[in-house]
Amino acid sequence: MEKKYESLTLFEFQEKFPDNDSCQEYLAEMKWPDGFKCERCGHNRYCSGKLRHTRQCTKCKYQSTPTSGTLFHKVKFPLLKAFYIVYYMSTNKKGIASTELIRKLGLRQKTCWPFQQKVMKAMASSGKYPLMGKVEVDETVVGEQEEGVVGRQNNRKRQVIVAALKVGMGWREHAEEDTKQGTIQDDFRMKIEEVNRLYLQKVR
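Structure (tokenized):
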């Protein structure tokens, strides 16, 4: 969902999501694109639940909301503001501080910051967003060390693993068997925001 926000200007975003109801409707469309399906029994018929936007399965009576199973489940402030947090984080390549979000949205630190962390983890785990800030790349090997042999000449090494560490905003790892410096840099070019921030340790 974060990816879809990137193509919207702030004005377009405001038009698309003017209130909490529009956010709920959007999440419902995303959750049930082919029509309602009960999360518990798989039944496809429902009626309105006790709360607004809640759908209750007519077979097992299980109630589900558009936010359940998403980042927005049990969010402690208006859903619209949560959408704005995702929007600002998705469209600001240099990142945005929680203090700035608090100022823009009129939130408190103890409620804004935890949700921001959830969004950051989701964006990192999706693999669709480049690593930002200082990124360090190093290597290790899988396999036993051959006596008297150093570096990649060891025939008992089975695979070389290259890992990327994003300092300060969590981390992701990536495996790469071709360890030529040019190959590594090309591969990580799509995973790191600025190539000149790639710190590749000297190949032994």
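The helical segments are 2-5, 10-16, 20-31, 79-91, 98-105, 109-126, 181-189. Strands lie at 46-48, 55-57, 63-64, 135-142, 159-166, 198-200.
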